[in-house]
Amino acid sequence: MTEHAGDVLPAFVKPVSGGGWRIFIKAQPGAKKSEIMEVSEGRLRVRVAAPAVENKANKVLLDFIAKKLNIRLSKLSLENGESSREKRLFVASDAEPDWAALASEK
């Protein structure tokens, strides 16, 4: 974890100069339900309840993370990894999200 504004950021979150945060994710599409698994190798492992076809898994992943962080979907974007399991999301928000909401559900 890294220090940030007096708080500790999870290993899978990095602040962006100029504002916002990057979230590093390893997605597992085709799951029965969307759920957070664990943090592994600096990435948040997330099962996604959508197949990896026609961008469906990416849309479900973005919606799932936005709901978990209690932010508008418009504040979250896929920066990198559209066709890869390893993804980089960007959170464009003035207020820092509650990263604890992304704690493992297991």
What does the secondary structure layout of this molecule look like, with pairings?
Elements lengths: L1 E3 L2 E3 L3 E3 L5 E9 L5 E6 L2 E6 L7 H14 L6 E5 L5 E6 L15
Parallel strand pairs: 4-6
Antiparallel strand pairs: 1-2, 3-4, 4-8, 5-6, 7-8
Question: What do you see in this structure?
Answer:
Residues 1-6 have low confidence and may be disordered. The longest helix has 14 residues, at 56-69. The two termini are 20 Å apart. The protein has one helix and eight strands; from the N terminus they run E-E-E-E-E-E-H-E-E. By secondary structure, the protein is mostly beta strands. Helix content is 13%, strand content 39%. The strands form two sheets. Strands 3, 4, 5, 6, 7 and 8 form a six-stranded mixed beta sheet that branches. Strands 1-2 form a two-stranded antiparallel ribbon.
